Amino acid sequence: MVVINGENAENASGLTLAQYIKNAGYNAERIVVEKNLEIICRADYDKTVISDGDSIEILNFVGGG
Amino acid sequence: MQDKLILGNKEFTSRFILGSGKYDVNLIKAAIEQGGAEIITLALRRANTEQTENILDRIPEGVTLLPNTSGARNADEAVRIARLSRAMGCGDFVKVEIMHDAKYLLPDNYETVKATEILAAEGFTVLPYMYPDLNVARDLQSAGAAAVMPLAAPIGSNKGLATRDFIQILIDEIDLPIIVDAGIGRPSQACEAMEMGAAAVMANTAIATAGDVPAMAGAFRQAIEAGRTAYLTGMGRVLARGGSASDPLTGFLR
Description:
The complex is a heterodimer.
Chain A lengths: L2 E2 L2 E2 L8 H8 L7 E4 L2 E3 L14 E9 L2
Parallel strand pairs in A: 1-5
Antiparallel strand pairs in A: 1-2, 3-4, 3-5
Chain B lengths: L4 E3 L2 E3 L3 E3 L9 H8 L3 E8 L17 E4 L7 H13 L5 E4 L12 H13 L3 E6 L3 H10 L5 E2 L13 H10 L5 E3 L5 H10 L3 E4 L1 H4 L4 H21 L21
Parallel strand pairs in B: 3-4, 3-10, 4-5, 6-7, 7-8, 9-10
Antiparallel strand pairs in B: 1-2
Helix pairs in contact in B: 1-8, 2-3, 3-4, 6-8
């Protein structure tokens, strides 16, 4: 099972991060990604393959104080 | 000589740090412009694809981003959030904010010192939000903080300078910019903090909950500038007793 932002993402396994981000509709320039507590830099989205058991956070900036 | 606020390796003319929470992103540009703010705070949260607006598209170029570590309950979580924020590629400023008390939202000073030490060693420009305690402020300075951000009152309370005397101690004793953060509810309170010698004031809720967000940002700008000028000028003296005429004491009509 793959967990992305706390939710099961059953179809993500096997995709690269770049593919997942594009399919899901995120703007890659406006997010930061952490896979299994490791930050994945944008240049590595293409070569990072999502595997069963991965826990991924896709984050962005929002208003805050 | 120009009066500059120096944080890390950056210089600022404005002494108003604007928060961006709790109001429409469409108002951010106008609030920055009317407030004259050169630094704006942000938070890092899980992204969702339904949200079409991104706050970064609303912030004018040249404004320094100050991501906070809100949501962190200890130093490790704050360090994790700070590293992720820096990976966004928008600079190395971070406001360390660590709390695990949902009622008063008071910062955990001990964990804040720990996070500050780690992040400063990694090259971050660290602005720690803290409860105004002189010993902790000294620890934060030793840990490599670029400034110290004591709270005036609980976050979002708009109650003003509840910790006034303790902030004054930090201003008098700590050789770092003291930025009053949290609880400042009115321009007059921001002005008072600046008159006391604060290096800057950070405000969010006071502006977000105002009738006109950009106009209130403008009012804070004026108040902060007035307070800074008054501080630099040197305040007029206060008499312990009695009065002192402002008019000549001779030449009265009789």
